[in-house]
Amino acid sequence: MTRSTIDLWVGVFVAIGLGALLFLALKVGNLASFSTAETYRVEARFSNIGGLKVRAPVKSAGVVVGRVAEIGFDNEAYEAVAVLTLDARFKFPRDTSAKILTSGLLGEQYIGLEAGADERMLADGERLRLTQSAVVLENLIGQFFTSKAAEGGDAKGAK
Amino acid sequence: MRATLTHLGAMVTAGVWRLGYAARFFGYLLVHSGTAFRRFGLTVREIYFAGVLSLIIILVSGLFVGMVLGLQGYDTLQRYGSSEALGVLVALSLVRELGPVVAGLLFASRAGSAITAEIGLMKATEQLSAMEMMAVDPVARVVAPRFWGGVISMPLLAALFSAMGIFGGYLVGVVLIGVDEGAFWSQMQDAVDVREDILNGVIKSVVFGFAVSLIAVFEGFDATPTAEGVSRATTRTVVTSSLAILALDFVLTALMFTGGN
User: Fold this and answer.
1) Is residue B79 very low, low, confident or very high in pLDDT (cuts 50, 70, 90)?
2) DSSP characters for B128-196?
3) Does the pLDDT of residue B81 top 50, yes or no?
4) Per-residue pLDDT at A100 exceeds 70
5) Domain presence at residue B182
6) What's the average model confidence in pLDDT over A45-69?
7) Where are the alpha helices (DSSP H) in chain A?
8) Predicted confidence band at B162 (pLDDT cuts at 50, 70, 90)?
9) Average pLDDT in the B87-101 region?
């Protein structure tokens, strides 16, 4: 084994070792998502996005048609702004509605699209007008208790 | 009774003396490490023996550990309907714990034992004494390059192990079982913090690199210069470094991941 062969192998070793670190930092750590398919972007505003994450799937009729690209906050309307990238193969009418849904009881959250009836299709950069926020369990339980309390109050008043 | 106590005392004294000797050896090694960096070719050679030749075992083990994590993790997670969290489970367990620890254990048995055997045999065949005769410091010429070669190789091997394991988890989880690919990566990226998880994992692997390399060169240098002595020293290297890795891992984890998490 000559000196230069050893140097070469050590060079390769150090390079792939550093490559693995870079992979961990970029791909596992965060950011840097490379997508090759052609897409178009639409915006959707929600009053509450719950636990929606960037890169969560966007599904229509249960099929993944895109991903959540960015999540931001509009400081004027106090709304969450989600930018969705949809696969260019799938076209949706302009009055399509977006809902934030949960897969399973404890599963991850995703956006469900329900196609409307408009004849014009959504174009790049447009906005989905009809949205429905995530269901927040605490609010739901709160509502349940207030309605139960109201019922109880009525029943006592009737006696 | 008296004999037992004397025996116990002798054992403790010998243990403490050995520990002190190892610490002094470490100090001497650090002071005389200049040659290892001035003539970096010597260290590069040792990186080749400790690092490059360990690649196969590290990569294959990483892949299989990742694949097993993928299968086992999926089996448990799908009961709670959250199989998309598989990426988080695989990545966090590898980056934080399994990567540095298992790579460290493999490194100790693959490279550490080889270093001990080599130095021990050099001592047994009086090559080290011959060097001293020629006014060449064996610590600077033989021990230090092996030590630093191990210290440099270990973090790279641990990173490769983790990366390979995550790839194995991806293979089983996404390609084989069919977990959603976007959720797999996105939840992983959301949960894994570059500083909190990845950097801490790298720090662990650096510490393990120091521990294993030091134990390996010390056991070799301190070996009884006979065939039996070298074989004992090699065994001690593997046992001591494995225990040191596990104990250090507990201490480091307790320091890194308590409070806030």
Assistant:
1) confident
2) HHHHHHTT--HIIIIIHHHHHHHHHHHHHHHHHHHHHHHHHHHIIIIIII---HHHHHHHHHHH--III
3) yes
4) yes
5) yes
6) 85
7) 3-23, 137-158
8) very high
9) 92
What pLDDT does residue A130 have? 86
Contact indicator for A9, B52 with CB cutoff of 8 Å: yes
The strand pair at A63-74 and A109-114 is best described as unpaired
Give SS3 for A110: strand
Residue B40: what pLDDT?
Answer: 87
Question: Is B29 within a domain?
Answer: no
Q: How far apart are CA B257 and CA B214, in angstroms?
A: 26
* Under 8 Å between Cβ of B70 and B168: yes
Domain boundaries, chain A: 1-30, 39-141
Provide the domain count of chain B.
1
Q: What is the pLDDT of residue A139?
A: 81
Q: Is B95's CB within 8 Å of A28's CB?
A: yes
Domain of B221 in residue numbering reads as 43-256
With tokens 């990366």, the residue in question is: B163
The per-residue pLDDT of chain A, averaged, comes to 82
Give this prediction's pTM: 0.71
Q: Residue B109 in contact with residue B61, Cβ under 8 Å?
A: no
Whether B185 contacts A55, CB under 8 Å: yes
The reply to whether residue A6 touches residue B48, judged by beta carbons under 8 angstroms, is: yes
Tell whether B77 is within 8 A of chain A (Cβ). no
Q: Is the ipTM of this complex over 0.95?
A: no
List residues of A whose CB lies inside 8 A of any B CB. 3, 6-7, 9-10, 12-14, 16-18, 20-21, 23-25, 27-31, 33, 53-57, 64, 67, 103-108
Whether residue B31 is contained in a domain is answered as no
Q: Which residue from A minimizes the CA distance to B191?
A: A29
The C-alpha atoms of residue B148 and residue B150 are separated, in whole angstroms, by: 5
**Residue B223 resides in a domain:** yes
